[in-house]
Design goal:
This is Alpha-amylase. This protein is an alpha/beta fold. The protein has helices spanning 6-16, 57-60, 71-76, 78-84, 118-130, 149-155, 218-232, 259-275, 289-292, 308-318, 341-350, 371-374, 379-395, 457-467, 472-476, 482-495; strands at residues 51-55, 88-91, 134-139, 167-168, 192-195, 200-203, 238-241, 280-283, 304-307, 359-361, 400-403, 504-509, 514-521, 524-531, 537-538, 548-551, 555-556, 559-560, 565-569. The relative contact order is 0.11. Bound molecules: modified acarbose pentasaccharide.
Length: 571
């Protein structure tokens, strides 16, 4: 029976439509009141409640046989994204850059030639627009490539470029407080790098190849606005802003989240909205929710920011060994003890300086180990857990982000190098997983990588295809696959008012590893029942006739299978 408080028991019985049990001494805190969320406003912006899909261009789909994904490949896959139900696409960097990842621009107005021509990019934007899909670009303003012309001129002391970056004569001593911008490390050499041409040290929060721009310089501020306008004028719907926390640095205690930084983004947002009032800005602030909320800037800053915490809380539910703590240093997220971690996560968003609509929940992105890799168990269980994670994500209010491959429970070969998290998509059981007609995909092309190289891809690919059910084609044919669940959940989000921002959100932890999340709005109700345990559980007390079990593959009679998911909805 229930291990939680009497009021939980009353709630569960009420859910089941049974008569309440005889009064027992209640000994725990009352069940938290269901969270009623902000009412949906008719004039909500296009991005509110949208579902975004993050594409890593180099790994999505290759049409010209060079082993690299390309713009024509993205155009060819738009029907796929439409079938999945995607509203908008986030392209990780696709401007000219020397690295495989592209976060180090050498050009602001040229597309990465590995992905195709500007004309092919424009065709992609138009084709997406024809299907009612928006496209946002990854805009990196905090830094550019060391190989950019500006940096050479700055190192040579040529005006005005000499002050386009942040320079100092000497390497700060240890103990002065300089270190990584996102933690308390005392490591000046992590962010100050020597350049022999100038004989001085330059500031680069992300390593010597990515010098920080001096965004206190009016010419640099103007250049960033010019870059944004160029791409907005091409029909891009907005930007995912990289590393927003670090654009200003005023000293060893001033490397992140400064008031000057929030002011910078207020000014940038005002400019972007002056070019296109519908343009959307979402910031990557990988930090505690209260700090991330500051980037809303009292309504004059960014439109949205990622909720980095919810993904860790969801994975924490599925990986008890890691507990419910966020796994990264910047999120203190300690549990208050009363609320379930997922209820507490929502409360933290609501109690922050930003409205609930500001936060975009997601599971993992291109910087984090893939969901299926973190949940790795024997394949069937991994797929089951990936479905539970998806349902927990989609039960949470807000604009959702899906990382390419997440919808098929794509895993990774190993950890320790970011490339493993960004490997080619698995479309089919054909050679190269249907990603490329080339003999070698880009991850097998040694010239792309500076570190020592061993070709790990063939063994990983073979193992994934041999295991069965790992590709888009296979999963689209299975009604209970991870892919089919993502498609169903995305459709529900569009159809069911309670799954939008305005629906209430109530998490209840029942006995034997059963978790219950209910969303409700004006009588329309969706209930998610998760079996977090490794054995089938009797959930008869949660079943009733008013609601239809619309996702019930794991229900046999009153028993919900191990790691099973049941979704019940009012008609
Ligand atoms: C952005 C892009 C990223 C890109 C860059 C730099 C910045 O998304 O792809 O890397 O061009 C910090 C910043 C982020 C930044 C990442 C890379 N992401 O906040 O803006 O660095 C902790 C902190 C994070 C911090 C991270 C750095 O909480 O704020 O992110 O460290 O590693 C566990 C730990 C946790 C730790 C995470 C991640 O969860 O508990 O404390 O987070 O792991 O480590 C690009 C390329 C990269 C390349 C880089 C130089 O994509 O491959 O390495 O450039």
């Amino acid at each position: 029976m229930l291990k939680t408080s009497l009021s939980c028991l009353m709630l569960a019985l009420a859910l089941s439509g049974c008569k309440p049990a005889p009064q027992q001494a209640s000994h725990d805190s009352a069940v938290p009141a269901a969270t009623t969320l902000s009412p949906a406003t008719a004039d909500a912006p296009w991005w509110q409640d949208a579902v975004f899909y993050q594409i890593w261009p180099r790994s999505f789909y290759d049409t010209n046989g060079d082993g690299h994904g390309d713009f024509n490949g993205m155009t060819a896959k738009l029907p796929y994204l439409q079938e999945l139900g995607i509203d908008a696409i986030w392209l990780t960097p696709m401007f000219e850059a020397p690295s495989y990842h592209g976060y180090d621009f050498t050009e602001f107005y040229q597309v990465e030639t590995d992905y195709g021509s500007m004309a092919e990019f424009e065709t992609f934007i138009q084709a997406a627009d024809d299907k009612g899909m928006k496209v946002i670009l990854d805009l990196v303003i905090n830094h550019i490539s060391r190989e950019h012309e500006w940096f050479r001129l700055s190192a040579e002391g040529v005006a005005p470029y000499r002050d386009y970056f942040v320079w100092r004569k000497d390497l700060p001593a240890k103990g002065e407080g300089w270190g990584y911008a996102w933690d308390q490390s005392d490591k000046p050499e992590a962010v100050w790098h020597f350049d022999a041409r100038r004989g001085e040290y330059y500031y680069a929060a992300f390593g010597a190849t990515q010098p920080d721009l001096n965004l206190q310089h009016p010419d640099v501020v103007a250049e960033m606005k010019k870059m944004a306008k160029f791409w907005l004028d091409k029909g891009v719907a907005g930007f995912r802003l990289d590393a927003v926390r670090f654009v200003m640095e005023t000293g060893p205690e001033g490397q992140a989240d400064l008031p000057e930084t929030i002011d910078y983004w207020r000014d940038f947002n005002a400019y972007v909205k002056s070019v296109n009032p519908e343009a959307y800005l979402v910031g990557e602030a990988w930090v505690d929710i209260p700090v991330a909320a500051e980037y809303w800037g009292n309504g004059e800053g960014l439109d949205q920011g990622f909720d980095f915490e919810v993904g860790y809380k969801i994975l924490g539910q599925l990986l008890p060994t890691t507990g419910n703590e966020a796994q990264f240093g910047t999120i203190s997220g300690t549990q208050s003890g009363e609320l379930h971690p997922l209820q507490e996560n929502l409360q933290r968003r609501q109690q922050s300086a930003a409205p609930l609509a500001f936060f975009s929940p997601f599971l993992t992105n291109h910087d984090q180990e893939r969901v299926a890799y973190q949940l790795a168990a024997e394949p069937k269980i991994t797929q089951q857990k990936a479905k539970l994670a998806a349902a927990m994500l989609f039960s949470s209010p807000g604009t959702k982000y899906i990382y390419y491959g997440e919808e098929i429970g794509l895993t990774q070969a190993d950890t320790g190098h970011d490339v493993y998290k960004r490997a080619p998509m698995l479309w089919s059981t054909q050679t190269q997983g249907g990603f490329t007609p080339a003999t070698l995909s880009w991850v097998e092309q040694a010239e792309l990588f500076t570190q020592q190289f061993e070709n790990w891809w063939p063994a990983f690919l073979q193992q994934q295809l041999a295991q069965g059910g790992s590709t888009v084609a296979e999963q689209q044919a299975q009604p209970d696959s991870v892919w089919s669940l993502y498609q169903w959940l995305i459709a529900q989000k569009k159809q069911r008012p309670e799954l939008k921002l305005a629906g209430s959100y109530q998490v209840t932890e029942l006995a034997n590893g059963i978790l219950h999340i209910e969303r409700e709005l004006n009588g329309s109700k969706t209930r998610f029942v998760f079996n977090l345990s490794d054995s089938a559980q009797d959930i008869s007390m949660l079943l009733n006739t008013e609601q239809t079990a619309n996702w019930a593959f794991d229900l046999q009679g009153n028993m919900l299978a191990a790691y099973g998911l049941l979704i019940l909805q009012t008609p």
